[in-house]
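Good morning N.,

You mentioned wanting to compare the apo and holo forms, so I went ahead and generated the holo version with flavin mononucleotide. This is what I fed in:
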Amino acid sequence: MPIEDLPEFVEKLEKSGELKRVKTEVDSNLEISEILSRIMYSNGPAVLFEKVKNYDMPVLGNAFGSMRRLEIGLENPDFTEIGQRIVDMTRMEVPSGIISKLRKLPELAKMTDVAPKLQKSGPVTEIFDDSPSLDRIPVLKTWPKDAGRFITFGLVATKHPETGVRNLGVYRMQIVDSKHALMHWQKHKRGAQHSEIKKDAGDRIDAAVIIGADPATVFSAVAPVPEGLDKYVFSGITRKTGIKTVKCRTVDLEVPANAEMVLEGYVDPSDLRMEGPFGDHTGYYTPPEPYPTFTLTGIMRKQKPIYLTTIVGKPVLEDAYLGKVIERSFIPLIRMFHPEVVDFAMPPAGWFQGMAIISIKKRYPGQAKKVMMGLWGMGQLSLTKIFVVVDENVNVHDLNDVIWAVTTRADAARDVMIIENAPTDTLDPASPLVNLGSKLGIDATQKTKEEGYQREVQELVSPDDATRRMVDSRWQEYGL
Ligand SMILES: Cc1cc2nc3c(=O)[nH]c(=O)nc-3n(C[C@H](O)[C@H](O)[C@H](O)COP(=O)(O)O)c2cc1C
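and this is what came out, ligand included:
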């Protein structure tokens, strides 16, 4: 059975030795984040801070900070299955005749199994606070030069104004006062797109910030799913069972019924204020930029909610593991468009949008470039700054192997592609302008005669089979 909510996840982590409780009183101002950063940099456990100075709400951090914890949370040792389920759905034949409909019934039933189910009430509707305040939530200040306290792990729910498709995105929020926060949805993200559509119609957008949910829903908010796919449905696909939802009280949105807490409100695109600086996942402070204001209209919550948070900074921290699961789970979707792709890696040190390495089974000249150009046109991969394409026999997860391929199969003038004035990740500290910069593509595949490589391809060094077998059979004799 999939995990239903955050307390159940906490219980499972604790039973597996993956969670520690801190009973000593700690401060949400810098102290918790310093503890969490030491724990995260040393591959430590999830931490539940039970006693937080001035607040009566426990704080949970690093809950997703290891592959083991993500395996527990998503009950999925093979994360590629998640993307494969989406691919399988797209390949399902839609039956027309009654007989074929009946034959397809079990598969269609599976699809409805993953759809969200709207309930009248749920644990999150236990309490509704109509004079709500952000001041009662133990929001962390992470780094000393941060502009203030930031909600870092809120799942921001919005609805596409035209299609009604529901979205969730993790966008940080800087607390302004008890009723206002700044919504850091970057330009390329779906929350910002929804808001822009509303803005064009002269309107503001409803938003609900979900604090703490079942692990699959948290993952869903981080995942760059294909356009048009409802994130609640994606959560159901991830956990193989649809989540339960309830309606918000003051805005027209649905939220997970098992959430710890939901901050209801709206984002006004005409009320822009300077957000930041904030110590970001690039390892630098992102300087202040204008972002729209979220106004709180109500809070729904459990009787005793847990405040789920995380900290970001120079990689590798907790978000790296979520990124790894995205990398694994989205390979089947990449292959759907580019079947030559064998493997794909986004090294965590490159904060995910910085660099990706792709191995391909090359069949024709220029194919590495075709893959790069295709991926630069695909969802959030379009924001990746550097692509390196290698042959199928190079291990994309082994940087030694990748560097060997780049230095032995790429010629700088022939195999490097630079694209100017392209969209970049908002956080890229090196791009000349915010959101606009250049791309670097390195084709590190073995070049062929058709690609203008007129030399003989040099043979890879390896032992002959007879010697290998002989040494294998005598290995014990050597005493090594
Ligand atoms: C801890 C954490 C913090 C994040 N903060 C932000 C943020 O402040 N702004 C943003 O646009 N994306 C942020 N992201 C990335 C988005 O959540 C991610 O790109 C997601 O796919 C967005 O969903 P969307 O495409 O549906 O908008 C963050 C991710 C994580 C894991």
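The first strand starts at residue 19 and ends at 22.

Happy to go through it together on a call whenever suits you.

Best,
F.
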